[in-house]
Design goal:
The complex is a heterodimer of chains A (115) and B (115). In chain A, strands 2, 4, 5, 6, 9, 10 and 11 form a seven-stranded mixed β-sheet that branches. In chain A, strands 1-3-8-7 form a four-stranded antiparallel β-sheet, with no helix packed on it. In chain A, strand 4 and strand 5 form a beta hairpin. Chain A has no helices and eleven strands. Chain A is mainly beta and 115 residues long. Chain B is mostly beta strands. Chain B has a single domain, classed as Immunoglobulins (Immunoglobulin-like), CATH 2.60.40. In chain B, 0% of the residues lie in helices and 51% in strands. Chain B has no helices and twelve strands. In chain B, strands 2, 5, 6, 10, 11 and 12 form a six-stranded mixed β-sheet that branches. In chain B, strands 3-9-8-7 form a four-stranded antiparallel β-sheet, with no helix packed on it. Chain B is globular and about 40 Å long. Chain B starts with a strand and ends with a strand. Chains A and B meet through strand 9 and strand 10 of A and strand 5, strand 6 and strand 11 of B.
């Protein structure tokens, strides 16, 4: 079944640790995105990718980095976690316009708490 | 500036009653409009979308939305709410632009259903 997977779902980690949030999709989509979501706030785009070896920063400045070595995989890395990074991180994917769909499909999210 | 406004932060509706969630957008080009629903601890699920054509669109779970260009609105409706509809609802707008399929989200409306 085509889907988007995120691991871990929940992560509590100490300040200064390096973390990688995993995102994989079996939708066959070229475009992938990372959003940051805080309670009562809109989703903010922090990174996106058009395809393999393509990564761009989104509207919200983030200290995280991403990579896109494989079409289906779009991990997000924080080199040194801080309490200000505590948030929910949502991964999404979409097809290119003209491929029949335009909407974004979301994974279940990773809730990160940095202590 | 491109933006989405959801005027109602929190709405409580009795089970079986009708529902309307408001969404107003500001977008320079022809908008593509979406409604997503998010249950606690979950990612976003697409309810419905508008690209073109009939301005009244049907979605999943008995939801519908009407695009009114003159009012820059895309309100979500359901004739009879079920307790399982309690969740957070996000309106989003996108279009053909530099980022292609980048979406702008509202801050969301939390729906509570009373028995």
């Amino acid at each position: 079944e085509a889907d988007i997977y995120q691991t871990p779902r929940y992560l509590v980690i100490g300040t200064g640790k390096k973390i990688t949030l995993e995102c994989s999709q079996t939708m066959g989509h070229d475009k992938m995105y990372w959003y940051q979501q805080d309670p009562g706030m809109e989703l903010h785009l922090i990174h996106y990718s058009y395809g393999v070896n393509s990564t761009e920063k989104g509207d919200l400045s983030s200290e995280s980095t991403v990579s896109r070595i494989r079409t289906e995989h779009f991990p997000l890395t924080l080199e040194s976690a801080r309490p200000s990074h505590t948030s929910q991180y949502l991964c999404a994917s979409s097809a290119y316009p003209g491929q029949g769909t335009y909407e974004q499909y979301f994974g279940p999210g990773t809730r990160l708490t940095v202590t | 500036a491109q933006s989405v406004t959801q005027p109602d932060i929190h709405i409580t509706v009795s089970e079986g009653a009708s529902l309307e969630l408001r969404c107003n957008y500001s977008y320079g080009a022809t908008p593509y409009l979406f409604w997503y629903v998010q249950s606690p601890g979950q990612g976003l699920q697409l309810l419905l979308k508008y690209f073109s054509g009939d301005t009244l669109v049907q979605g999943i779970k008995g939801f519908e939305a009407e695009f009114k260009r003159s009012q820059s609105s895309f309100n979500l409706r359901k004739p009879s709410v079920h307790w399982s509809d309690a969740a957070e609802y996000f309106c989003a707008v996108g279009g053909q632009g530099q980022a292609g399929t980048a979406l702008i989200f509202g801050k969301g409306t939390t729906l509570s259903v009373s028995s």
